[in-house]
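ESCALATION

Customer reports they have been waiting on this structure for their group meeting. Please prioritize. Original submission:
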Amino acid sequence: MIIAAAAVLFPQLCYSQQRISPALQPLPDEGMGYEHVERLINVLEQVRLNHPDGEKLSYDRLINHALEGMLNSLDNFSGFYHPETYSFISDKKREPSLPGLGITLGKSEDRIKVTAVHSGSAADEADILPGDYILAINDQPATKLTLPAILKKLQGPAGERVVLTLSRTSSPKTHEVPILRRVVRESPVPAARLLEDHLASDQKTGYLHLSEFTATSHRDVEVALDDLEDRGMEALLLDLRGNPGGLLTAAVSILGEFLPPSTEVVFTRGRNPEHNSPPMKTPARKRRNRSYPVAVLLDRNSASASELVAGALQDLERAIIIGETSYGKGSVQRIMPMNDTALRLTIATYHTPSGRSPQGVGILPDIEVDTSHEDHKNLARQRRSDSLSPDERQLLESWEDPVIAGALKAISEKYAPN
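Update from on-call: job pushed to the front of the queue and completed.
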C-alpha cells in the first residue's frame, strides 16, 4: 500500500536500477528508500488528520513546502520554485528582483520569502536577511497578493521610503523595517580613476570598481583600462568588494585582460561526470598587453565569479589579493523544470587553475586587512555618494579606506624598483 502511494506522490523515486546512469557515482546503498517515503506519507496523513487549520492542508501545499524544505537543507543556493514564482521566472526570464531595495523574492501560496539580499543595498543596511518573510507592505497585508502585485507595491521612485513588516524563523516576534529606495546604477564599472595623490612615490596607480559580471562588463572594463593606461597608469587596484558574481563568461573574458591568451582559468567538477567540464580558457587574442602590477580587493561579500577571478589571478601569481576572506560560493546551479514547478539545484563546484574550489571556504587573501563594521558602512556610503545626508558626508570625509591603503602599500613595496 505504501509503495503504491509512493508511486502516486513521488513517481520520480519509483525507478528501476537500470534507469540509473552507469556513469553516475553511486550513493551508499540505502535500498529503494520506500521506508523513508513511508515516514513522509505517515507524517503527511497525521498532519491532514489532526491539524486544525484546514486551509493549509491540501496535498499540493504540503508537498510543495516539504520539497522547499528538502532543497533548502542541501545548501544556500539550491531551492524549490513554487508555481507562482516559477511562472514569473518563465514569463519574465528573470528572478523577481528589486534592485532599488536590493532584494530578490519568492512566492508560495501564502508566503512571500526574501530569497536573496544584495550586498551593500538598502535591504542589506537595514539588516534584512535571506529567509525573512514579508507580511505587510506599508501596513497593508501582503500575503494574499500575487507576485506581480507585490513587486508593483515595492517599486517606486528613489528617495521614497517603504516600510516592510517581517517575520524571521529565529524569532517569534514580527518587526517593521523602513527602507529608502535608491538609484540603481546601470554600469558594472561605477568608478575608474587614478589614485596618484595617495602614493608617496611617482607611480600612478589606477582604481577600478567592478560591481557585477554582466554581459557588458568585459567591454566596460576594457574601455576603463584603456583610459587609465592612456593617462599613465602603472599599477591597478581591481575592487571586487561586494561583487556577488554574475556571468562566468564575463569573468573569463576579464581574466584575459591580465593573463596570456588561451590560459586555463576555471573548470567544474560534479558527482555526476556529465557535470564535469574541460577548463575554460581566456580569449585566444588580446588587444593590449596589460602586464602592470595588479591588486584585487575582496571582502566577505565577494562571491562566485569574483572569487574565481581572484583565485585564478592568485594561483597564476598574477595579482596580490588583499582584504577579507571572500564569501565562499563556488558552486554551479541548474534550474530543472518539474511541470508547473522547478528545482534550482546545485550540481557541481567551480575550481581555479590549481584545482581548489572557493565553495564553503572562500578565497584567502595574501594580505588580510582588518575591516570594521563601520568600514563596511563607510564603503557603502562612498558608493552611493549622490544620496548622502550632510551627517553621512561628514563621516565619510574623515574616513580612510583601510583596504585601499593596504593595497597601495603592498603594491608599492612588492613592485618597488631595486
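Sent to customer with the following note: Residues 7 and 14 are 6 Å apart (CA to CA).
Escalation resolved.
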